[in-house]
Amino acid sequence: MEENYIILLRESLEKKVEILKEIVQLNIEQKDILEDKTSPVDEFDRNVSSKDALVQKITKLDDGFDEVFKKVSEELDSNREKYASEIKLMQDLIREITDLSSKVQAQEKENYTLAKNKFSGVRKQVQRVRQSKDKVNTYYKNMTKANYYDPQFLDQKN
Which of 11, 3, 23 has the alpha carbon at shortest distance from 103? Predict the structure, then answer.
């Protein structure tokens, strides 16, 4: 029975590696979206939603891993020789997960800076558009008044 749990632990780590690789790829796509001045906001939103779904999967995997590990940790400690190959595989997977996690963190930091810059640029554009709109409205108000004369009283007595 413990052997099945140990295999389950390894498979959980393998799934986590695959999900982290997907997140790395989505981060690369997100960087491209943020660097492209013509990319629509919807693309960015889809990318973030996809990453969020993957992070939720990782959280579930981690929770499941912790539960299973609690059940078999004693068995693993007492019979290290018996499970040496599985332990080695899991250690390698954990190293890979650590490397991928570090890569994801670096990408996220870089993308955060890009997003901050892009959205600050968008805010400035919105402000310029508003100012231009206000100027245009003022101009049209003034122009419509240019051909308008207040009623005049004419004295026709002479």
Answer: 23
CATH of domain 2-118: 1.20.58
Domain residue spans in the chain? 2-118
Q: What is the pTM of this model?
A: 0.75
Q: In this predicted model, what pLDDT tens digit does every residue of 53-79 receive, in sequence order?
A: 999 999 999 999 999 999 888 888 888
Contacts of 62 (CB under 8 A, 6+ apart): 16
Local structure of 157: helix, strand or coil = coil
State how far the Cα of 29 lies from the Cα of 72, in Å rounded to an integer. 39
Q: Report the distance separating Cα 97 and Cα 104, nearest Å.
A: 10
Nearest Cα neighbor of 114 from 29, 23, 34 is 34
